[in-house]
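Quick one: structure tokens for this chain, please?
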Amino acid sequence: MKKTERVYLQKIADLGCIVCKKLGYEDTPAEIHHIKRFGAKRDHLHVIPLCPHHHRTSKESYHLNPLWFSEKFGTQQELLEETMRLVNGKGQD
């Protein structure tokens, strides 16, 4: 992994969980979730920040219940777009 990718991933993680933000909780520690894109290799640019609860450890997590997660919180693409607005400083109060 390149240094620029590590720096970018840290910026994403520093945003906190995108789902927790939607629920009104700020600064929830986040892990990096790589977006699955049909026909494309995973990369370090298409990622969203999710806390362990929303990423992989609960019934509300993307990895355990992706259809329910997407219906409740938004698709990976929608969450990626929200993440991009936040990391670029748009959409902040």
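The chain has one domain: 3-87.
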